[in-house]
Amino acid sequence: MNSNVLTVEMQKQYIKEMSDKQLSEAIKNSDSSAFKILYFRYYEPLYRYIFYRTYSKELTKDLLQDVFTKLWLNRKRFDSSKSLKSFIYSITSNLLIDYYRKRSSRVKYKNEIFCAKVITGNDFLEDKISIQNAVSRLSEKIKDVFILNRYEGFTYKEIADIQCISIKTVEKRMSKALKYLRDYLKEKK
Amino acid sequence: MRKRDIKFINLCIKSLNGELKENERKSIDEWLAASEENKRMYNELKKVWIHSEPPVIQDIPDIDLEWTKFKTGLQLNSGYNKKTKIDFIKNIFSSFHNFFEKKYAIIVYSAAVLIIISSLFLWDHYLSTSSFNVKTSKGEKTLITLSDGTKVHLNCESSIKCSDGYSRRDRKVYLEGEAYFEVIKNRQNFIVITPNASTKVLGTKFNVRARGEETRVIVKTGVVILNKNDKENDSVKLEKGEMGLISGKDSPNKIDSVDTESFLGWMDGKLFFRQEPLHNIIEELNRAYDVTIQISDSTLSAHTLTATFDNLPFPSVINSICLTLGSEYKFENDKYIIY
């Protein structure tokens, strides 16, 4: 017969080490401590993702709280047979779409943080800033795909799942993004 | 944009991502060889790709702080909100107050007080002359106050009843499951009757647990007499910090100096297990969390576990247990299956 001891420290460690799949199952059953782990695990990546879309600290913080609220309220929809990460990003992506739909076009470039032309004498840095500037000018749909692939490292298949679009559409949007960035950089010269 | 361009740009991205397949490599090489224009485009795209690294983000917010804000903004614990009930009562009183002028209010309040006092007397009378029967289901606990002020904390899946009129002749209650008693002292004995034992006290705090073939009594304060049901005077006297045990038809056993807090933790949502076989733990978890756990690997059920779960949500509990035992669990048809 096996005798085992499970200490409080072990419990804490085990909770931290829960896989996304287990977290998903636990949260589905309204486990708030599992949700806390999800919060700490995804806060930073999601913060980056939303910040690249909005370029506003305060807005990102607000939207992020909305994302987690939505996740908690939709916890019954968690499906542990599917990727938790994709589900979270899909909720986030939809929230951003809603946000930009509601926002009037008048303030479209209000949050653009990069000025039109930067002269630093450093070609590499100048190009880099130009590109960042160009990324912020991409249309929201194209920008979203580009950020997910280039910044967040999602595969086309994953992006297609997150946005409920076909892989062909992802490919199209990525090409459009790259072409726009290339043309933008060329014009600058 | 032309279809051919899309195809080519895509191949370039794949190449830059390092995801090019063998046949794709061939077509991109052919494309590059076709014209200088294509080569230039490839180099330009490559430049864009290299320069389009994510910008560095400084000062990510304090996640602890954000979590606290989030938690307070959203009622994460779906527990019963006591405040609303108090507010509700307050509102009734304040609306009363607003409705009547102050001089009338005194009359109204006195009338209300009279009604409350008389109904308390009636309630007391009702309790002292009639019987009661309280049951809890899985995952449900309750606190009952009897007519003499005695408090009974009833654990999950337990029942307490009194069929021959509480406190008329004596204070005799019948218990199945587990309860903690805070008995108010008076001249009558307070007796808890369980399937194989009776526990007699005058005024004291103690816990009785009657599950399966066993009755277990833990004394927090005062003195308790634990007696076998079918044999007069086969009893033990238990004092503070002692545990009495009657297993099946055995004579009562006394165990000195037990950790009473660990046996009474259930009232605060804590679960204590000391080298407890897994099948007992599962029985207790099923009861406390209103879940159904099954063990598909029967060799596991004899394993013992020592653990304390302090108000831990259920999925975390089962996850920790499985990790400790080196087994896994799945959730299927509303059941947790350990395998």
Helices and strands in order:
The complex is a heterodimer of chains A (189) and B (339).
Chain A: E1 3-6, H1 8-16, H2 20-28, H3 32-54, H4 57-73, H5 84-102, H6 123-137, H7 140-151, H8 156-163, H9 167-188
Chain B: H1 3-17, H2 22-34, H3 36-51, H4 63-73, H5 82-99, H6 102-129, E1 132-135, E2 142-145, E3 151-154, E4 159-162, E5 171-182, E6 190-194, E7 197-201, E8 205-211, E9 214-221, E10 224-228, E11 235-238, E12 243-247, E13 253-255, H7 260-264, E14 270-277, H8 278-289, E15 293-295, E16 304-310, H9 314-325, E17 329-332, E18 335-338
Helix pairs in contact in B: 1-2, 1-3, 2-3
Report on this structure:
- The complex is a heterodimer of chains A (about 190) and B (about 350).
- Chain A has about 190 residues and is an all-alpha fold.
- Chain A has two domains: about 20-110, Orthogonal Bundle (Rna Polymerase Sigma Factor, Chain: A); about 110-190, Arc Repressor Mutant, subunit A, CATH 1.10.10.
- Helices cover about 70% and strands about 0% of the residues of chain A.
- Chain A is built from nine helices and one strand, in the order E-H-H-H-H-H-H-H-H-H.
- Chain A has helices at about 10-15, 20-30, 30-55, 55-75, 85-100, 125-135, 140-150, 155-165, 165-189; one strand at about 5.
- Chain A is elongated and about 70 Å long.
- In chain A, about 35% of the residues are buried.
- Chain B is elongated.
- Chain B is built from nine helices and 18 strands.
- In chain B, strands 1, 2, 3, 4, 5, 6, 7, 8, 9, 10, 11, 12 and 13 form a 13-stranded mixed β-sheet that branches. In chain B, strands 15-18-17 form a three-stranded mixed β-sheet.
- Chain B has three domains: about 5-50; about 130-260, Sandwich (Jelly Rolls), CATH 2.60.120.1440; about 270-339, Phage tail protein beta-alpha-beta fold, CATH 3.55.50.30.
- Classes of the chains: A mainly alpha (about 190), B alpha+beta (about 350).
- At the A-B interface, strand 1, helix 1, helix 2, helix 3 and helix 4 of A face helix 1, helix 3, helix 4, strand 16 and helix 9 of B.
